Amino acid sequence: MIQTPYLLFLGDAPDQLAAKVAQGIRDWRPENAVGQFRLPGCNVSVGLQDMTLAEAHAAGARTLVIGVANRGGVISAAWQAVLIEALEMGFDLASGLHNLLRDEPALAAAAAAHGRTLHDVRIPSVKYPIADGKPRSGKRVLAVGTDCSVGKMYTALALDAEMRARGLKSTFRATGQTGILITGDGVPLDAVVADFMAGSIEYLTPPNDPDHWDIIEGQGSLFHVSYSGVTLALVHGGQPDALILSHEPTRPHMRGLPEYAMPGLEELRDVALTLARVANPACQVIGVSVNTQHLGEDEARACLSEIEARMGLPTVDPFRHGAGRLADALSAI
Amino acid sequence: MIQTPYLLFLGDAPDQLAAKVAQGIRDWRPENAVGQFRLPGCNVSVGLQDMTLAEAHAAGARTLVIGVANRGGVISAAWQAVLIEALEMGFDLASGLHNLLRDEPALAAAAAAHGRTLHDVRIPSVKYPIADGKPRSGKRVLAVGTDCSVGKMYTALALDAEMRARGLKSTFRATGQTGILITGDGVPLDAVVADFMAGSIEYLTPPNDPDHWDIIEGQGSLFHVSYSGVTLALVHGGQPDALILSHEPTRPHMRGLPEYAMPGLEELRDVALTLARVANPACQVIGVSVNTQHLGEDEARACLSEIEARMGLPTVDPFRHGAGRLADALSAI
Question: Above 60 in pLDDT, residue A72?
Fold first, then answer.
């Protein structure tokens, strides 16, 4: 539905975490992006060639994808100027921001004037049901994090890729704008109305073959007070048979919440498993995924070994070392 | 904003739990309701005089309030006929249903033709912030339930009334349509977009005098898989200093979920307190409220005594016996 290839708009993103959308597309569908576009003050790169709008258009790009997420989400005047120029040049726009492209009068007018399309992938396109909690055939795995943005989506994408490479039945189920932009389908869970959150996840992960795995993209954290309700809806709507604990070992405090210390993996295990077993009494924790991007190779190996010994669970950085051991653990269920 | 007094519309409600809105108005603002209106097949009464629309209008009623909640919420043809007749007769309509009065073309047309107002109290009227988790002055108490519809709102209303009767600073904070219809203010939490749930509760319960108590209306249950995410947003957005455990001892299974057994009060205490202490490490469980409406007086007393001995907490049915002991426990914090 969204025309490829993309030019990835990085705006004036202050830090790499803010560029999760662009990085995800770059890592998992690199063939879909011809380059990146940065404004002055941008402190981020996703490793693609910097291009002007004209260069990207000449290289075949058809959609300018907003590759950065702002807390609260505001489309600044500096952004608007670029986006309007892109529409005038013939680009469609795609965005997962809270504040919608279609709600910006200048963008809506420019899109209409030039016959371009504004894709707001954050907006649910389905009227989701209220969850009924009924057991469903097929198997499901969910990554739950000590914090937001600790690598849950990467873990799911890497595990899905590994499962499919082994010839196993597996589907990545996107629950956020990045995953939806990557796969073209999914539930924009954080934009779903509260009463329908768990139902949207039941809808996303319907009954399936007994040997099929839904690899459900996690959101937020049970310990992140801004978004914990979203996470619990995933845990109860997804009815996971398996949980993976996700962690980022260098984070000084909960993301965006300087007053809040990170929980330990043991706390996460106990709380997540207790809650998951309400919906699926057979649920197990099958492994730990650690985002070691801020550690050197030796440090990363030492960190993984320490956690593996302490937790008694296969512990990997799936992006750095592959998701093979997590796939092994799933296959053993 | 909503013109009083009301006529309470009970429709063809199948059971008393479905009439929570009407019953709440009847119990807490009886001066606002002149009577009740029932369709054939209605199995519910809130103990008011049955009236035709004409009788109620003659008695001074100005707004027909939809006093029943449907799971999923559908305005049937039988309901529509009455609602249109009411608009023609000069009533405004007020509703907390998911499907909005304003979205029904026939109702919107009749309201426009007759100059009447459709109040959809379920719709948020505020753009809520994302929660920032910062500690706030003042104190807050939240009732959390083993299940939905176990008396959390009644507990909060009764406790608020008792606190105010003692001359203490107390505000009931409505989080659902019934509470909003009763008090005229609040957050319709189950209709808030997922990312803003916890922020809406921070907005609802702002910094206050150190000796002021917000009595926050609970929603759902951490153990009810359809709505648990809403409950966790309340726990983390509300930052309660005190929790009250709410229970209905005769419920055979979780409401609407025949596959799900009710949790014990001990399980609820452990899970709720663990999660609440993420946002407020000083949080305490200060009492238990039991909805004994389906028990005789002796049975109720025995049930309360048994739970009190087992849990080591003041245990009352606040609607039946008053909320004095809960107010005592709050005052001791």
Answer: no
CA atoms within 13 A on the CB side of B32: 21
Q: Which residue of B has its CA nearest to A238?
A: B225
Separation in Å, CA B327 to CA A36, A95, A154, A330, B166: 60, 50, 49, 51, 9
Which residues in chain B touch residue A71, judged by CB atoms under 8 angstroms apart? 130
Backbone angles phi, psi at B180, to 5 degrees: -65, -40
With beta carbons less than 8 A apart as the criterion, state whether A252 and A260 touch.
Answer: no
* Alpha-carbon distances of B24 from A225, A276, B8, B19, B67, rounded to whole Å: 31, 33, 11, 8, 9
User: Do B123 and B199 touch, CB atoms closer than 8 A?
Assistant: no
**ipTM of this predicted structure:** 0.86
| DSSP letter assigned to residue B258 | T
| A116 in Cβ contact with A90 (< 8 Å) | yes
Interface test with A, best of B130, B204, B223, B232 (most A CBs within 10 A): B232
Please state the φ and ψ torsions of residue B26, each to the nearest 5 degrees.
-60, -40
Distance of alpha carbon A242 from alpha carbon B135, whole angstroms: 35
Mean pLDDT, rounded, for B126-145: 97
Give the model's confidence band at B92: pLDDT under 50 very low, under 70 low, under 90 confident, else very high. very high
Q: Which helix (H) or strand (E) holds B145?
A: strand B139-145
pLDDT digit string (tens) for B34-68?
Answer: 999 999 989 899 999 999 999 999 999 999 999 98
Contact at 8 Å (CB) between A45 and A38? Answer: yes
Give the mean pLDDT of chain A.
94
* β strands within chain A, DSSP E: 6-11, 33-38, 63-66, 92-95, 118-120, 139-145, 169-173, 212-216, 242-247, 284-290, 315-316
pLDDT-above-90 percentage for chain B: 82
For an interface test with A, give the residue of B123, B175, B227 to mutate (most A CBs within 10 A): B227
Residues of A in contact with B189 (CB under 8 A): 194
Neighbours of B77 (CB within 10 A): 7
Chain A residues with CB inside 8 Å of B72's CB? 129-130
- Taking the model in full, what pTM does it have? 0.86
Enumerate the β-bridge partners of residue B290. Answer: B247
